[in-house]
Automatic annotation (TrEMBL):
Gene3D superfamilies: 2.40.40.20, 3.40.50.740, ADC-like domains, Dimethylsulfoxide Reductase, domain 2. The keyword 4Fe-4S applies. Its cofactor is [4Fe-4S] cluster; Mo-bis(molybdopterin guanine dinucleotide). InterPro entries: Asp_de-COase-like_dom_sf, MoPterin_dinucl-bd_dom, Mopterin_OxRdtase, Mopterin_OxRdtase_4Fe-4S_dom, Prok_molybdopt-oxidoreductase. GO terms for cellular component: membrane. Keywords: 4Fe-4S, Iron, Iron-sulfur, Metal-binding, Molybdenum, Oxidoreductase. One of its GO terms (molecular function) is metal ion binding. Its EC number is 1.7.99.4. Residues 9-60 form the 4Fe-4S Mo/W bis-MGD-type domain. This is Assimilatory nitrate reductase catalytic subunit.
Length: 680
């Protein structure tokens, strides 16, 4: 069994391989996992079921240990030579943009950085993006507009411990990252979610809006705050601009109108906004439920407008934050694997940024390509006459995780060349011409930036199985065949990343592996070795040149696809406790499979009765994009007009709608119209 002889002799301090909380853990001796208590995210000693079973990833029997060329094991040099030859031939025939690169929000900072450099320097392509576009991009875009900078939670997570009130819009932390809940023991919790989730069950107040109407709800809350005289006028005058324009823009969103659109009673809205305004320490957090919409940027903007009106951001003990999801969702969007970015959270079309990064890379600035296609647009263009003919894919499984997944699988099937780096045969790897077997998690060192913006060190604890190499080795070996020299040692890559990020918004230049180890993480920006890092970047000023936050007027509009006669029910998608993202890792861990063995459709008892569906029935769910089957679960935790499916298995994303947010290019994962029937 490949990897079954993996042995760890000593205890090594590291972090969980999965979500953005990046819980501190110790692995070893052997495969024993124990929580660390020096990492604030889980200093309580908590881990979730995924974390406790993470050691089993290292001994998984389905581990890939040899490169595969058209499904057959081959020597590394054979596979690398083949890929380099094919990439060169495709570039020569169709131009550099005929080769695309797709990354992931779980890759270490070192890998994300090297991937961006590989695309721009070794391949000369603009066609690079990553699956983080599907997760955090709307909150990032809204934060940049409002604050001039995006750092998911611009405060340490432990600040929440002392809060009086926390509002979470579209986040189910009790299920997705349970140790987070330990930070919510004290505050009064307000949850906005169409489902009565595990998090909503903990709430003092649960607002249950119609899917796709969070934006209207946020506008209604701000309308009420203004009408009830709850605005922090002093703060608004001293620290913001644009309030009057937003005040005027709210005229259509009086409370009764918002109740009609959202289904949330006015008295609940009033309770929520009064609770937030009545206390000294209040936070508003958003998650994917509010963000993964074709209007996600505007929805987050509306919640930020509410937070600004109440005087929360940039004050110790209060604030706005986005609860990032993927393991390195924060760092992954800072160092250049995004179509429009260069390392240090620099914009790729900024001449000064291009000069700086080109200097670190040793190339002329004009050789750095411009912005490329966003993630879904890139996948949608694969194999088309104008689109990429080859795709290199790292740390992602879009056949399961992209919207309109069947269409995406078709586009991938139209490629001349698909190269996948993974450590197991994911559904996307199974379609590849070449699969490179790579190291994972505890077999490699690297940095991850957690949901607080704290840069953490993941340490190598185990020797990888024979035949496996790191993604950094793969990229360097291909770069060398294409005429370039890349570093492969994570610490050396990080030193280069530090130089590339220096002077950017996400400045890592003062962070070293040694400092991270000694200080159990360092917050960016950290612009010099003596700098203490920046846990709360907005205390004195926001990142716009005038130091003020921006109110930005936004308007509600319906979901891109509303229910109709043919598809009369809303579908919403999300995660379950036992699984992570596309499930490529967690669906291979026996205790997690035992805990959550199969996909399901959750529907309200009234809807189930109307459709003659009983618990355990196999249900067919169809949308304009595809069809999926799953077992019925009947629960009054969901609205009568909505069904819910977890997205860790094939199926849910065959249904979802790839309508894109105009700013962030985030697809509308969280709402579409479906038909639900008992499978005869
Ligand atoms: S999956 Fe997230 S919440 Fe669970 S142990 Fe890992 S980092 Fe912590």
């Amino acid at each position: 069994m490949p990897g079954s002889d993996t042995m760890i002799n000593t205890a090594t301090k590291t972090h969980c391989p999965y979500c953005a909380l990046q819980c501190g853990m110790q692995i070893g001796p052997e495969l024993a996992i124990s929580p660390r208590t020096d990492i604030p995210a889980n200093a309580s000693g908590a881990l979730c079921q995924k974390g406790w079973t993470a050691g089993e990833l290292l001994t998984n029997g389905e581990r890939l240990t040899a490169p595969l060329l058209h499904g057959e094991p081959v020597e590394w040099d054979v596979a690398l030579d083949y890929v380099a030859y094919r990439l060169s031939a495709i570039r020569a025939e169709h131009g550099p943009d005929a080769v695309a690169v797709f990354g992931g929000g779980g890759l270490t900072n070192e890998k994300a950085y090297t991937l961006g450099k590989f695309a721009r320097v070794a391949l000369g392509t603009s066609q690079i993006d990553y699956n983080g576009r599907f997760c955090m991009s709307s909150a990032a875009a809204a934060s940049i507009k409002a604050f001039g900078m995006d750092r998911g939670m611009p405060f340490p997570i432990t600040d929440l411990d002392d809060a009086d009130v926390v509002m979470i819009a579209g986040g189910n932390v009790a299920e997705t990252m349970p140790p987070f809940v330990r930070h919510l023991d004290g505050p009064r919790l307000i949850v906005i979610d169409p489902r009565r989730t595990q998090t909503a069950k903990l709430a003092w107040l649960h607002l249950q809006p119609t899917p796709g109407t969070d934006l209207a709800l946020a506008l209604g809350l701000l309308h009420l705050a203004i009408a009830d005289g709850l605005v922090d006028e002093e703060y608004v005058a001293a620290r913001t601009t644009g309030f009057e324009e937003v005040r005027t823009s709210l005229s259509a969103w009086w409370p009764e109108q918002v109740e009609r659109v959202t289904g949330v009673p006015v008295h609940h809205m009033r309770q929520a906004v009064r609770a937030l305004a009545a206390v000294d320490k209040a936070y508003i957090l958003t998650g994917r439920g509010a963000e993964q919409h074709a209007k996600g940027t505007d929805t987050v903007t509306a919640f930020i407008n509410l937070a600004l009106a109440l005087g929360l951001p940039g004050r110790q003990g209060s604030g706005y934050g986005c609860v990032t999801g993927q393991g390195n969702g924060q760092g992954g969007r800072e160092h250049g694997q995004k179509a429009d970015q260069l390392p240090g959270y620099r914009k790729i079309d900024d001449p000064a940024a291009r000069e700086h990064v080109a200097g670190v890379w040793g190339i002329p600035a004009e050789d750095i390509p411009g912005p490329g296609r966003s993630a879904y647009e890139l996948l949608d263009a694969l194999g088309t006459p104008e689109g990429p003919k080859a795709l290199m894919l790292f740390g992602s499984n879009p056949v399961i995780s992209a919207p309109a997944a069947e269409h995406v699988a078709g586009r991938i099937g139209a490629l001349d060349l698909l190269v996948v780096c993974d450590f197991v045969m994911s559904e996307t790897a199974a379609l590849a011409d070449v699969v490179f077997p790579v190291t994972q998690w505890a077999e490699e060192s690297g940095t991850m930036t957690n949901l607080e913006g704290r840069v953490l060190l993941r340490r190598r604890a185990a020797t990888p199985p024979e035949g496996v190499r790191s993604d950094l080795d793969v990229l360097a070996a291909l770069a060398q065949r294409l005429g370039h020299t890349f570093e492969t040692e994570p610490v050396k890559v990080f030193d280069e990343l530090r130089r590339a990020s220096a002077g950017g918004a996400a400045d890592y230049s003062g962070i070293t592996y040694e400092r991270i180890a000694e200080e159990t993480g360092v917050f960016w920006p950290c612009p010099s070795p003596g700098h203490p890092g920046t846990p709360r970047p907005f205390l004195d000023r926001f990142a716009h040149p005038d130091g003020r936050a921006r109110f930005v007027p936004v308007q509600h509009r319906p979901a891109a696809e509303e229910p109709d006669e043919d598809y009369p029910v809303y579908l919403s998608t999300g995660r379950v406790l036992a699984h992570y993202q596309s499930g490529a890792q967690t669906r291979r861990i026996a205790p997690l499979v035992q805990a959550a063995p199969e996909p399901y459709v959750e529907l309200h008892p009234d809807l189930a009765e109307q459709l003659d569906i009983t618990p355990g029935d196999v249900v067919r769910v169809s949308s304009r994009r595809g069809e999926a089957k799953a077992v019925a679960r009947i629960s009054d935790a969901i609205r009568r007009d909505t069904v819910f499916m977890p997205f860790h298995w094939e199926g849910a994303n065959r249904l979802t709608n790839p309508a894109l947010d105009p700013t962030s290019r985030m697809p509308e994962f969280k709402v579409c119209a479906v038909r639900v029937e008992r499978d005869s």
